Amino acid sequence: MGTNKYMRKRGRVIRRAIKASLYPLYERRLVTSLDFTQTPHHVGVILDGNRRWAKANPDEVGMTSSARGHKAGANKIVEFLGWCEEAQVQIVTLWLLSTENLNRPEEELAPLLAIIGETVDALAATKRWRIKPVGALELLPEGLQKTLMTAATDSASYQGIEVNVAIGYGGRREIVDAVKHYLSRESSEGHTLADAAAKLSVDEIGNFLYTAGQPDPELVIRTSGEQRLSGFLLWQSAHSEFYFCEAYWPDFRRVDFLRALRAYALRHRRFGS
Where is average pLDDT lowest: 25-29, 85-89, 128-132, 181-185? Predict the structure, then answer.
């Protein structure tokens, strides 16, 4: 029985080694097949699967804490943005924390918020990307709000990818906030509710979204095998293409990203027609 177990383990190791040796060849093949001038300008990413990754990959003492998974996921972000640079992506929206996540138990939420703050600091410290916080930031602790605003200010002049860090973000709340801000502006300008309603349009709401002034994402990627948006960029993703990947976010590889770009390039975008 012990011999059979050893042989199965050895077989898995050999298969992983074979795959590892073949992936660079496969990546090069994917790269040569892609026309990076046709890749999406704006990519949205639902970074899903950190906690499940931690459970599936306990550390050397068997720890499977969610904080460890979130840390592994945070470490993937800089690498991912490097891939986006290579592909000439201009805007990336990363969903790091939903409004629903803010209801998690304090013992889980506090380490997660700390990791997010450290991640934003690390992104700004690269001096490669412009950081734009998006979400209901007023729901966040004051310390994290300050970290986000500092990162946005310090990185405003950088010339690289614009990185939307969606924290305390919910798609329904974003739309409600947009309408509220629109009505508030109309009221401040002395317009009646009837006047505001008559003027209300798709473009007007778009002007008050968290991502106002940016093009909508052409491609939305979700990791971990879940095939739903869960409220991510509800308004902006009306005509987006979706790519769902089985890998947990910490395991997301460059080859997975290239596959997403290839799938996007092969689709005929109908824009609702």
Answer: 25-29
From 57, 101, 177, 256, active-site residue: 101
**Residue 123 contacts residue 151 (beta carbons within 8 Å):** yes
In this prediction, residue 195 has a pLDDT band, given cuts at 50, 70 and 90, of very high
Which residues, including other chains, have CB under 8 Å from residue 203's CB and lie 6 or more apart? none
Map out the domains of the chain with their CATH numbers: 41-266 (3.40.1180.10)
Q: Is 4 tagged catalytic?
A: no
* Catalytic status, residue 203: no
Nearest Cα neighbor of 231 from 113, 116, 101 is 101
* Residue whose entry in the numeric block shows the structure tokens 């704006």: 42
Give the 3-state secondary structure of residue 241: strand
Q: At residue 235, does pLDDT exceed 90?
A: yes
Question: From the CB of residue 269, how many other CB atoms can be counted at a distance below 10 Å?
Answer: 11
